[in-house]
Amino acid sequence: MLDPGESPSLANSGQGDTVHEGQRPRTGLAASTRRWFDTQANDAASANIDEYRIDWLRAVPFIAMHLACIAVLWVGVSSVALWVAAALYAVRMFALTGFYHRYFSHKTFRTSRAVQFLFALVGAACVQRGPLWWAAHHRNHHRHADTALDPHSPGLRGFLWSHAGWFLTPHAFRTDWSRIPDLAKYPELRWLDRYDTLVPVVLAALLYGLGVLLEHTQPQLGTSGGQMLVWGFFVSTIVLFHATVTINSFAHRFGKRRFDTRDDSRNNVWLALITFGEGWHNNHHFFPGTVRQGFRWWEVDVTWYVLRLMAMFGLVRDLKPIPAWVTAKVRG
Description:
With 332 residues, this protein is mainly alpha-helical. The chain is 52% helix and 1% strand. The protein has a domain at 68-256. The chain has a two-stranded antiparallel sheet with strand order 1-2. Helix 5 (79-105) crosses helix 7, helix 5 runs parallel beside helix 13 and helix 12 (198-217) packs across helix 13.
């Protein structure tokens, strides 16, 4: 963690693990395993690796989470497990769309430091890395959308790469601190970004414990620790991940283009429904500075509705509206 006067661009650039003379650098399995839990752990011997090829060793947890979903064949299913999985999908999707995206990445509204950290925690439970990593990556995406510097353009690198491959490269694992000086001043967010794995591990443990408790106190529900873990954590998280990244892949290939932007972004109603409004992607790329992504009344934007409700209770404020000139273009 940084001292108050320390520069985040230097302290968190991944250069913290200096190899002194006579000291052997951490390499291979040990280094990759450490980076599963500490994103700032540095492998000095990795300087010559291809930054844009999948780091299969570091990707093991990501792959293992997919394989864990097969365990539904053994743990079975119950209505309570499905409801928990659906609820966690909804709550975490809102944390991603409302806070990781519209708040941390684009600053389209304001909130208190406590609410900021609360939703940063919920967002970290999505297993899509920390809020600072997410915001830095997304700001770079808007800066270079569908160009050679965009890490996940389907038009340049193919559909599968834009959907998930880019996410597993050494280059993509790093947080670009130069893009987030406004967020790097918060030590709690820097800590969460460094140890982002801790939150989903705690969530998984709590779900398992809940299942064990219900199995003993409410056996008529037909659930168990293993069932709650598999459905509530693994299945829900994997569905959440793939729904989220459809905006990188599908939303740059399939849909309608209301605005002639310099990228290939498109509006897709089906993606908007499963991502709580993110599918109005062409709208968003045309004017990312508004909290609302559905520009017409019929463009369903669940995240916008929830943020308006939160504003009524004073939890968020200063929601940036759609400018009149943008509204005129939509209706024109």
